[in-house]
Design goal:
The chain is an alpha+beta fold and 268 residues long. Helices cover 18% and strands 22% of the residues. A hairpin with a 5-residue loop joins β4 and β5. The longest helix is centred in the first third of the chain and has 17 residues. It is globular, with a radius of gyration of 19 Å.
Length: 268
């Protein structure tokens, strides 16, 4: 038993040594036109909870993502969509989206298509849930594009999901996204399926009035998530704004692994 404990601690030490120090990442929040805040003292949490901290106090970058909802983008006065950022394109501009196989999906507002590409999952106005499937040779963003446009990126394709299995979208592999429990991580740092305890979330008031227990799970990845970064799935943009206020603008956290209180999230 002593040997196993020594090996476990050695493995954790190696992991911490491999993770490069985080640099301030403004990519996500700046795209959503949200100013980054400096680190702030968190309210009355006991950060000595069971498990092993992956970093020193508040050294892991926190970001957010959500399900992009088409009906929110049809109302130009809606407060449920970002007003600026990377997807600030004219509301009257429409584009076509396709599957990777080349099948027509639909015609949607371009600012919604941009949001779909950024968030990864979305709900169409007809009730279909779709997921980003990566770059392809046709579809939204097909070159040649105007080099002066900020969204001059490779084409993006999508796929329809079974709403019974994936009501909020799909994460890594076949993992369904779970509201306020799923997080996206760098799988080289945190393995997919690993429960994490985040003391900054413990006691956090959620938009439905419930209280978060601090437990989340690594269910997703992202191209912009490298090293000490975590994206928290919060379902809607409105929820993101609510939680940003509840967190007092704190965008740095202290995730723990092997916390007994979060083992209920571990895959069977």
């Amino acid at each position: 038993m002593r040997l196993l404990a020594v090996l476990r601690l050695a493995g954790l030490a190696l992991l911490l040594g491999l993770v490069a120090p985080a640099r301030a990442d403004t990519s996500k929040l700046s795209k959503e036109d949200v100013p980054l805040q400096t680190k702030a003292a968190q309210r009355g949490k006991d950060k000595r909870c069971c498990g092993y901290p992956l970093v020193d106090d508040q050294q892991w970058a926190l970001r957010f993502y959500w399900l992009s909802i088409e009906t929110d983008y049809e109302d130009t006065t809606s407060t449920n969509v970002p007003k600026g950022g990377a997807c600030a394109v004219p509301a009257n501009r429409w584009v076509e989206i396709y599957t990777r196989e080349g099948y027509f999906f639909g015609r949607i507002p371009e600012r919604y298509a941009c949001s779909l590409r950024l968030e990864g999952s979305g709900l169409l106005r007809d009730g279909r849930v779709i997921n980003y499937t990566g770059p392809c040779k046709f579809g939204y963003g097909t070159p040649p594009r105007d080099p002066r446009r900020r969204d001059n990126l490779p084409a993006t394709c999508f796929e329809q999901l079974d709403i019974t299995d994936y009501p909020f979208g799909r994460g890594a592999g076949q993992r369904p996204l779970i509201p306020f429990k799923s997080v996206a991580v760098d799988p080289r740092v945190v393995r997919i399926g690993e429960p994490l305890y985040v003391p900054e979330f413990d006691g956090l008031l959620l938009p439905d009035g419930s209280i978060h227990d601090g437990c989340v799970r690594a269910d997703d990845t992202g191209g912009g998530i490298k090293g000490r970064k975590l994206d928290f799935f919060v379902v809607t943009y409105g929820n993101f704004r609510f939680l940003l206020d509840e967190l007092f603008g704190v965008t740095w956290i202290t995730p723990y692994v092997e916390a007994p209180r979060c083992q209920y999230l571990r895959d069977l």
